[in-house]
Design a protein that fits this description.
alpha/beta; five-stranded mixed β-sheet; 34% helix
């Protein structure tokens, strides 16, 4: 599980950091910068919850591997990741994986709690979903596109990042 999830997150992190440095395939790479920390990020400005009781903080999930899924229900690319998320949730939830959906709407109609509830039923999303209608959690995690996945380690003190993924297996 961690290898599969880490590979996805690693690719996203590497692409994001490359984009932040402003490099393209035809440019020389800029001097490496310290990654923008997501360690201080937490749930902020949540307008409502679907599929369970609200979380006050991600610290409540310490000891678990947490996959934050920033998505919106009308996004085709987001919907294409749902079969994988459902399979991981079914297979690994009892081993400590917690998926928390950060539903961050692109359009005004996606802010409706009733619409999100219906969409989660229709799309088979059974894990906890936070309505991030004002993009406050999205901004706290420096998200820029749908979908974005952020994998947090069980210590709750950092994400599984590209540096760890780039190390060859011993």
């Amino acid at each position: 599980l961690v290898v599969v999830l880490a590979a996805i997150v690693g690719a996203v992190v590497i692409l994001e950091r490359t984009r932040e440095r402003g490099t393209t395939s035809g440019e020389a790479a800029a001097e490496p910068q310290a990654p923008a920390s997501r360690l201080a990020a937490d749930l902020r400005g949540i307008a409502g919850w679907v599929n369970g009781p609200p979380l006050g903080s991600l610290a409540e999930l310490q000891g678990k591997v947490v996959l934050l899924d920033f998505w919106t229900y009308s996004c085709v690319n987001c919907n294409n990741t749902l079969p994988y998320l459902r399979a991981w949730h079914e297979r690994y939830a009892d081993q400590g994986l917690v998926i928390v959906g950060g539903h961050t709407p692109e359009f005004a109609f996606e802010k409706s709690l009733e619409n999100v509830q219906q969409a989660t039923r229709d799309q088979g999303v059974s894990w906890l979903v936070a309505l991030d209608n004002d993009r406050r959690t999205w901004d706290a995690f420096h998200v820029r596109a749908w979908p974005t996945k952020v994998l947090l380690g069980p210590d709750g003190d950092g994400e599984v990042g590209a540096e760890e993924l780039a190390q060859p297996a011993a």
